[in-house]
Amino acid sequence: MVPVTIAEPAVRSYILYSGILALKVLGMAALTARVRFRKKVFANEEDTKRSKGVVKYDDPDVERVRRAHLNDLENIPVFWVLGALYLTTGPSSELATWLFRVYTAGRVLHTIVYAVKPLPQPARGIAYGIPYLIKWYMGAQIISHFIGSL
Ligand SMILES: N[C@@H](CCC(=O)N[C@@H](CS)C(=O)NCC(=O)O)C(=O)O
Q: Residue 150: which pLDDT band, with cuts at 50, 70 and 90?
């Protein structure tokens, strides 16, 4: 059994990048609110009163930010699970740190090219694909490490 302790640089790196990603997910709510107020487009009647906005469910800019938020929710919790389990396989600290770092950078870039400053494809596909492959790699490492130990 590989000991997973806070003294391990890879564990500290996981905690750091997990925290950054959690704040990044929270930031999506602020980004959505910013676009809603800029466009005066809201989801509920009571939200429209102070800013004289309208209820609208198909504003393209709001929907874009909402899709980016949803995409985070489809991906980042999976990283938390796989990243934590990956640490139990005894990876090199350097490799684990780079995987967590690149993953985090990819997810931040995904939001930028999707919702902040939309860029033509394949910008979003790449920003999505690299973190996606990192998760598959960590998942495969977990399975290959533990499959023989049952
Ligand atoms: N739920 C996603 C699954 C596939 C995915 O996440 N694709 C990436 C790269 S093209 C993406 O940014 N999709 C846009 C989105 O989720 O709104 C979708 O419907 O597209």
A: confident
